[in-house]
Write a structure and sequence with these properties.
287 residues, alpha/beta, 54% helix, 5 strands
Length: 287
């Protein structure tokens, strides 16, 4: 007896009919694995989702009325288990940064069929690993990993100073798990088009630049402060000190083994972030 697998439901949203037609042609070979729908606007997309929620929404950023960031913010609120991807060719920094919160991934436009296919397939595969619906809802709602209150306040004050330097910003960010995770995620995404993988925090901050970091903090509010009052029996200071120590020891071991600088940086990142799931659970599962 043949076994059938459920096709993934994918919704593409773009106000340009020619773009939607091109997507249909490019991805026709995926029709056995995906059930694809196409919408010409954000409101139409929401109408389709109300009839049949889908696994992935791929939306253009620049659309009249409701743009991609607004649409994905609504999708995030109404359908938290849906993977959200921005597909855009615009270069306006502020508009692109607005999509950081509601989107899981950013694909530059134009993207070839293989790039789009890989992004969707990879996202679905990672999503399928989370068999627990509570965890899926939790993970999909995360905009940022909360930062140490002292470092968060220190960064705010520094960015307000006209004499602040990117080097000083680096020193704060590389001491914090949440900030480190976010800048590495951003610098390695298509948002900024860096041609190689970056695993060094200071390098990532320098590549983003002072203005982008400032926008992320004040305009986009990507970084957030850990709220001690809402979480009991969890010490963010102890957690952060442990994670930082593991990262430092991991990097030192890599250096003793005479590995390349890139491998040592990756070892540090792995050590720093190895327990990040505990922080996410502490903040979101409070009872």
């Amino acid at each position: 007896m043949e076994t059938t697998t459920t096709r993934k439901q994918i919704l593409f949203v773009d106000d340009e009919p020619n773009v939607l037609q091109a997507l249909k042609r490019m991805l026709h070979h995926m029709s056995k694995e995906w059930s694809m729908n196409f919408a010409g606007s954000g409101p139409v997309a929401l109408m389709l989702l109300a009839k049949e929620p889908c696994d992935v929404v791929v939306a253009d950023m620049r659309m009249p009325g409701m743009d991609g960031a607004q649409l994905l913010a609504e999708v995030k609120r109404l359908y938290p288990k849906t993977v959200r991807i921005i597909l855009s060719g615009q270069s306006e920094r502020e508009s692109i940064l607005r999509s950081v919160g509601p989107s899981h991934q950013f694909l530059s436009k134009p993207s070839d069929a293989e790039t789009i296919k890989n992004a969707i397939t990879r996202s679905c595969a990672l999503w399928d690993l989370l068999n627990n619906d509570i965890l899926k809802n939790l993970v999909s709602q995360i905009d940022s990993i909360p930062s140490l209150p002292t470092l968060y306040v220190e960064l705010l004050e520094l960015l307000k100073s006209p004499e602040a330097s990117i080097k000083e910003v680096c020193k704060i960010v590389e001491r914090d798990i949440g900030m480190t995770a976010k800048v590495l995620q951003l610098v390695n995404s298509a948002y900024f088009g860096v041609p190689r993988h970056v695993s060094n925090t200071s390098q990532a901050v320098s590549m983003l630049g002072f203005d982008v970091i400032k926008a992320l903090v004040f305009s986009i509010q990507v970084f957030s402060q850990f709220d001690r009052a809402s979480v009991q029996h969890f010490s963010i200071e102890t957690f952060s000190a442990h994670s930082l120590s593991v990262g430092i020891f991991a990097r030192r071991i890599a250096q003793i083994e005479k590995l390349e600088d890139k491998a040592a940086d990756e070892a540090f990142m792995a050590g720093l972030l190895h327990d990040v799931g505990k922080l996410v659970l502490a903040v979101n599962l409070k009872e």
